[in-house]
């Protein structure tokens, strides 16, 4: 109940700071119901001023935040003409690279000796290392499919080609009106 009162109050204030607070809750709050409620209030007051901040969250180094931002965008975007920049940002976030810890099972600082008939070797180090891991963002794909009506799954090149063809058609339509 407190959250509902808070959200209603923030949406009635209608200041940039209050709207930014709602956007932050819609993307970053740990509770999914809180994120949904904040997004609903943004829809009621108009999310346009905070969309750049939410779209920027698609480039976060935190994969969970990328998906939460996509979920928020899916709730905030109204049916109608597609925003090519928004769709482009979603396509760019479809598959991202994130740092993760990986190890070979040996303790850090260990030494391993290998002997074979053709020679041998000595390995020093072991332990965990930070590596880049490609990640598919399910919420980004769901949002792309929902707002575009297209589905190229994880094929980033196909999504980019589709978007370029939509943009070129829009240019042609504009020229016809001259």
What fraction of residues sit in β-strands? 15-25%
Distance between the first and last residues' Cα: 55 Å
Strand order in space, largest sheet: 1-4
How many individual helices? 8
Rounded average pLDDT: 86
Shape by Cα distribution: flat
Radius of gyration: 23 Å
SSE string, helix = H, strand = E? Answer: HHHHHHEEEEHH
The biggest beta sheet reads: 2 strands, antiparallel
Content-based structural category: alpha+beta
Task: Please give a structural write-up.
With 178 residues, the chain is α+β, with helices and mostly antiparallel strands. Helices cover 56% and strands 18% of the residues. β2 (110-116) and β3 form a beta hairpin.
Task: Produce the secondary structure layout.
Elements: H1 2-13, H2 16-28, H3 32-45, H4 51-56, H5 63-76, H6 84-92, E1 95-103, E2 110-116, E3 119-125, E4 128-136, H7 138-148, H8 156-176
Antiparallel strand pairs: 1-4, 2-3
Please name the defining characteristics of this protein.
178 residues; alpha+beta; two-stranded antiparallel sheet; 8 helices; 56% helix; disordered C terminus
Compose a concise summary of this entry.
With 178 residues, the chain is of the alpha+beta class. It has helices at 2-13, 16-28, 32-45, 51-56, 63-76, 84-92, 138-148, 156-176; strands spanning 95-103, 110-116, 119-125, 128-136.
